[in-house]
Structure formats: structure tokens, C-alpha cells
Amino acid sequence: MQRAEEITNCPECGHQIRIDPRHVTWCDKCDWNVDPTPREDHTPPWRLRLEHRLAESLYRELETGSVHRPGWDAARIGAHVLSALILLLPLIAFLAGVALLVFYRPLWLSGMLALLAFGVAFLFHPRAAQLPDDVQLVPRDQAPTLYAVLDELADAIGTRRVTTVVISTEANVWYQQIGWRFRPVVGIGLPLWAGLRPQERIAILAHELGHGRHGDARSSWLVGAAWSVLYELKETFTEQHGDRIRRELGYGEPTGATLISRMLNASIGVLVRGIAWLLERLELRGNQRAEYLADRKAGEMAGSEATAHALERLVLAGASYRALERALRFPTGIDPLEAVRREVTEVPAREIERRLRVSRLREARTDATHPPTYLRTRLIRTRPATTARLVLGIDRSRTIDQELHPTATKALAELRAGL
Ligand SMILES: [Zn+2]
Ligand SMILES: [Zn+2]
How far is the CA of 19 from the centre of ligand 2 (A)? Predict the structure, then answer.
């Protein structure tokens, strides 16, 4: 489809720029209007500069190619020590309960105190990661091609084979170890998946399995268990929604119970949130390094060019989710996932480039879970090019879509019902 393209001059530098009515008009020479809707960000400039510097220094560390595994730096050791301390809480509570019952008399009093201690131990015991409720399971016998590809990838990468694939309607693909047996699960988000070309799918799946290989801090059971305890603590010692409404509406005098809960929130709650913030910071560099290493694995498996393209597609994740929502709200007779695929593949390279530049402005934050996309693609492209070890042809890619179709239909029906 040929469209008449208009040309205008950049109001900042006079450089000629193309106008595409469907996308933002911006200047690739001086970045004029590259981010027309900047987010409100109250971070002081010095901190942004510092975070940019941290992101760039981590990037350089990987650019030299000397780093091959997450490694035990001071921060990672700190994260594990802190996690161990957090896990002492339920353990100490449990032991205190036992000690009370054994050594303290009268029994009725020690029994009551022990019950309290056991309650604390139970409430804040570590929990294993569970599957989210809103996902659909894809059994192995229903998707032999997909599982064969995943097995092949897992074997080549040197990680455990995936036990379950699940489907969701979010625009992401993820990897998690579920339960105390840490069964590896891959989650496929339909809107993102639909917009990926075959080899880009290999890249994304290889990236996720790469996380299994490196066992990054999040998936280490110690830190994971500590996070589950922290999560419960945060839930318990944070002002509940109902409390907030009551306070804002000025309903009645605060009772003794609400005063106590407010005091606990102000003391223990602040402490818990502080510890969570610290643990997040300690893990951050390790987590981001793990992302780069997973990207490298993806490059080895899918080839560097397809991997870089796949990462660039990630900047369209939000757009692909909105496209899916639109397709479900206003059905046109086309399969909703096909509509997403068309919309995403029609986005011109210039618009993807703009979004990558926005990622440089917005995502260089060290509190993001992933390093900024522009650095990830740059790292893939500056390292020596790799050819694919595993090739997924168009046919096998289509077969996978057919295998996923019944489960995808269910997932989409649920999303449609919730719109
Ligand atoms: Zn310009
Ligand atoms: Zn990742």
C-alpha cells in the first residue's frame, strides 16, 4: 500500500523530516518531539544522572565480553545475607513458641503466648512461587511442536526442560520456577507473541530459558523466599484500602484498634518497606546483568540479528496489548491475534527507532527490572554477530499457533468478558 508521504522541516534544526499521520512526527537529527508525552517524573536530576551512569557502566562491563555469569559481587552477597536475616523472623517466632511451651509456666499463659508466636511464624512463613490465577495451561500433548522447540532450546542452553507452558493475555513472555520443586514454567503473552516473527520467537524463548541457566538472584530460592515473607509483611503493615477511605471521609473517632494499626503501620510498616527497598537495590545490578546474559544466550540460539529485532519489538508491547483490546471490543471478522500481528508488523522502522530513543530517556532508570532496550539491542549488535543454532521456519511457527489456538481462544474469551 503506497501512501503519499509529506515532508516538513524540523522547527528546531531545520532538518527534513517525514510526516506519517499514524505516528508521532519527530526529528531524528536533534530528537525534537521524540517523546511528546513525557511522564511526570519527580526524580531529582542528579539521581537521574547517577542512574544513567550506573546503567552505562554495567553496559560497558558486558560489552568487553568478560562476564559470563552473574558472579558474586558485594551486592549479591548482601542480598543473600539480608534474605537470610528476613527468613529468621518466622524461624525465631516458631522457636520462641516451642521454648515458651517447654520452659514457661503457668501453662495457660505460655500456651496463649506460644499461640501468638506460632501465629506470627505461620503468617510470615516463606511461600513458594505459584502460578497466577489468570493463566491457561497448555498441556504437553496439546502442543508437541512448541514443547519440542522448548526442549531443544533448553538442552542447547543447558537448563532444565520446561514442565508447563501457560498462556496469558498480557503483552509479555516470562519464565518462572513454580512451587518448592521449582518446576520451570514459561508464560506466553498472546499480544506480544502474535507480533513476533518465527526467529524472533526463538530469541524470546531462548532469553527466558537463559534465566533458568544463570539462576539469577530472583530465582535463587533464598532471595525468593525472603521476598515472599516481605510481601506478607508489607500487606499486613500497610494501610488497608478500607482504612484509607474511612480516614479520608473522616468517619467517626478512631477506635483503639485503628490507632494501634496506624502505629504499627507507621513503625513496622516503614521498616518493612525500607528493607524491601534495600533488597531491591542490592539485587538490581545482578538482575540487570542476568538480563544481558539472557540476551546473549538468545543471540547464540536465534542469531544476533533476530534477537536484536525481537528486543526492538518489545517497545511495541504496550501498543500490541491495546491493539488486542481494540480487536476484541470492535470485532471486524478477522482473528483478533491476526489483527494484532498486522498492526504490529506495519509499524514503520522509523517509529520503532523513536520508541527506542524514548526508552533511552525513560528506561535508563536503575529501578526498572530490565536494562533500557536501546542498550540491550546495542549490546547485541556491537558484539560479534552470531548465526542461529536453532531455526524455526514459518511452517513450524504456524503449527505452534495452531497448537495454541484452542487455549488462546479460551484466554481471549476471558479477556473479552472482562473488558
Ligand atoms: Zn531537528
Ligand atoms: Zn529477562
Answer: 35
